[in-house]
Amino acid sequence: MSGEVISINRKAPEPPTLICACGSGWFTALVCFDGQSVTGYSLPVKCIDCGQEVTP
Ligand SMILES: [Zn+2]
Q1: How far does the centroid of ligand 1 lie from the alpha carbon of residue 27, in Å?
Q2: In this structure, is the dihedral angle defined by the CA atoms of residues 41, 39, 26 and 22, taken in order, positive or negative?
Q3: Most exposed: 16, 25, 31, 41, by fewest CB within 10 Å?
Q4: What residues have their beta carbon closer than 5 A to ion ligand 1?
Q5: What pLDDT, on a 0 to 100 scale, did the predictor assign at position 47?
């Protein structure tokens, strides 16, 4: 597995602020679950519209 894994430790996640250069706010990424909560994700994430890899 490549890329950096970011842990999410906030109780109330902030709204997503990552936006691709093409304007899309949707990305694919590897995610880690704890029960039904996402506890982490891998970087970079990939834009679902243009396919560009983006690192926040
Ligand atoms: Zn894009």
Answers
A1: 8
A2: negative
A3: 16
A4: 20, 22, 24, 47, 49-50, 52
A5: 96
Q: What is the pTM of this model?
A: 0.60
Please give the C-alpha separations between residue 35 and each of 11, 13, 16, 42, 46, in angstroms, as whole numbers.
Answer: 14, 16, 21, 18, 24
Q: Which residue has the higher pLDDT, 4 or 46?
A: 46
CA 25 to chain centre: 10
pLDDT bracket for residue 27 (50, 70, 90): very high
User: Which residue is associated with the tokens 């519209």?
Assistant: 49
